[in-house]
TrEMBL record:
Residues 8-20 have a biased composition (Basic and acidic residues). It is found in: Cytoplasm, Stress granule; Nucleus, Nucleolus. Monomer. Interacts with PABPC1; the interaction is RNA-dependent and stimulates ENDOV activity. This is Endonuclease V. Its cofactor is Mg(2+). Residues 1-20 are annotated as: Disordered. The keyword Nuclease applies. HAMAP family: Endonuclease_5. Keywords: Cytoplasm, DNA-binding, Endonuclease, Hydrolase, Magnesium, Metal-binding, Nuclease, Nucleus, RNA-binding. The keyword Acetylation does not apply. Endoribonuclease that specifically cleaves inosine-containing RNAs: cleaves RNA at the second phosphodiester bond 3' to inosine. Active against both single-stranded and double-stranded RNAs. Has strong preference for single-stranded RNAs (ssRNAs) toward double-stranded RNAs (dsRNAs). Cleaves mRNAs and tRNAs containing inosine. Also able to cleave structure-specific dsRNA substrates containing the specific sites 5'-IIUI-3' and 5'-UIUU-3'.
Amino acid sequence: MTAAPAEDQVRQWESEQEHLRQQLVEDDTEAWQKNPDFSGLQRVGGVDLSFIKGDDVNACAQLVVLSYPDMELLYEDSQMVTLTAPYIAGFLAFRETPYLLEALQRLKENRPELLPQVVFVDGNGLFHYREFGLACQLGVLSGLPCVGVAKNLLQVQGVHKSEEHQSQIAALQKGGDSFPLTAASGKVLGKALRSSDKSVKPVYVSVGHKISLDTAVRLTHSCCRYRVPEPIRQADCRSREYLRKHFPAADT
């Protein structure tokens, strides 16, 4: 296969990203976001895709909705999907977003009263090569506030796993402490957050849509029982359990 089709695909996706980027809102838009204790927030969503080991095409697309602040399960949707778009670094959203949107649409049609007021995404938002990651794309296309939470540092725009970065992590004393992820341009693209007192390894929080960075960080911390915020942790656990149940011969 020649490189030309991939180059054409990249140009098309870059154009689409730029178009969607114009619709991105990086500020708080909901009343509950402005309350110190998030009063008015009742439902938080989490999404994730889990793949059968050795298979990068067939996956379980998972949506969960939990109560806030109790983190009790209100709704779950597990659906096997076949990804059709190729994997190209920086364009993960074009592979995964359609199936996550379908899950949200099924919820909207079947149980609209349980639609989440904010969605946590296992991935990055503004903290991205072109400042438009999976959490941004899902947010803009769904119209819902979204928060990107990544477990690993994306080394992008001048942010690296440097000695300085490691020393900043070491300086995080307790759950809720954070430091900014500042691009070479000087723009803050996200924050590294120590999500709990027990976990010294941070998560990387960035704006998806319709929420400010500071609010996203506070909300992420408030949803953490362990290192990863509960909506994402539950989506991950339940999608993996679905694969174990339905594909027992595969080592997921």
